[in-house]
Design goal:
Elements: H1 19-50, H2 55-67, H3 71-81, H4 90-121, H5 125-158, H6 162-191, H7 207-236, H8 239-243, H9 246-257, H10 268-276, H11 279-296, H12 302-310, H13 314-343, H14 345-369, H15 372-399, H16 406-439, H17 442-464, H18 469-488
Length: 489
Amino acid sequence: MLNPVDIPENLDSPPKLPLIQMFRIGLFQMGLGIMSLLIAGLLNRLMINELTIPATLAAGFIAMPLFVSPTRIWFGQTSDAKTIFGTHRSGYVWIGSVVFAAIAFILTQVMWQLGLSVHANGWNEITYGWVILLGAMFALYGMAISFSSTPFAALLVDISDEEERSKLVGIVWSMLMVGIVIGAIVVSKLLQCSEAPPSNISIYADPPRLAGLQSTVNFVFTIIPIAVVALAFFATYGIEQKYSRYKVRVAENHILNGTTATQDKLNLSKALQVLTASKQTGLFFSFLLMMTIGIFMQDAIMEPFGGAVFAMSICKTTQLNAAFGSGTLIGLSSSGFLIVPRLGKQNSTKLGCYMVSGSCILLLIAGFTQQIPVLQIALTIFGFASGITTSGALSLMLDLTAAETAGTFIGAWGLSQAIARGVATLSGGIVLDIGKQIFNIPIYAYSFVFVCEAVVMIIAVTLLSRVNVQEFRTDAKQAIATVFANEID
């Protein structure tokens, strides 16, 4: 049994998180949204259209940060057990932010060198060397993102109760979309693009345009990451110390269960045992996989879609993220405050999945009309549907999280979603290249991607229907008890 001296004397719960503090915390997610716009909304377009790198390879680079997501489990579990700067979550957020901001600038310089090598040398040993280096830089960037974002997600569990969690999720992930919208507007202004449509010739064949583009892109990847780091510090400073219920919940769990397990008893091996002991955990992992693929298969190809089918400039394709982000923002906001509280988390998520499937068909129709306003409307509706799906799924995910191992579970959920998004992004590039070979007409190749997305979302709904929250909670408690009991034995 737990020795009474090991129990904190004061188990009073911290104060409830005020609404204004929810928005403040969301500033970190806003920064991640801006960085997402830079990496997945700008670099993918530059690589595919301006540097003439194959879509499959470009999508692979964009997906690389997601394929290193197994580190999320370790980072999440480490934040449960170890403190940085006296905090279980905030210190990880700060260090990770500084690192991913620095790496973002470095990998952009490597990208320019790859483009130069492709133009000057073709696909020889030197070029493949740059490919490997750029892939490694994207992987390091992804690890830094995981190092900060996984403890941040665990912090959301620590500072909230179940009844207010959907509201917190709605606000925080709405701020992510605010970041994407702001980033799209600011970046498109800073780039000062011409209205010239994309061509199939490397930008290195046009030195004056190359010099201007490199200058502005490098400036963007200097000033914006610095601003994002500042947002990360401002968003989280002092929040954990005042509002976190982590230590209280762990102590209460020890009292109720009479276990001798402490924070540093749960290592990675035991965490994996907990996560694989529940059938419901596997079902929810599978649902997250399908849902994320269904939403993000078009992630790396949307800007090239605007360039190839609609003859849009870099600035205009970057602004497509504003349409998608605005729709997602409305979807997230309405879900957290209106839809999820009324329909429930599981039913709201199902509704969102069906709407995403329908939105993929709208994108297909927009491509055949070749009218930019139709594309923007379709993307806004797609974003709205994605917002509903994401809000419901994230709220459900946080409910399927054991408080005493929040970092471990959040890391596991994040692992599933990140790998799925990586698969989706890479699949989008592969399917696009295959479609180009089969149809030899851009609109048909892109339409193939949208049809695949719609089918995947229907599969996601089928898996979600089999998820049972109460059964998960029971299984999770038994699994945790079993793992800890084995440690005692």
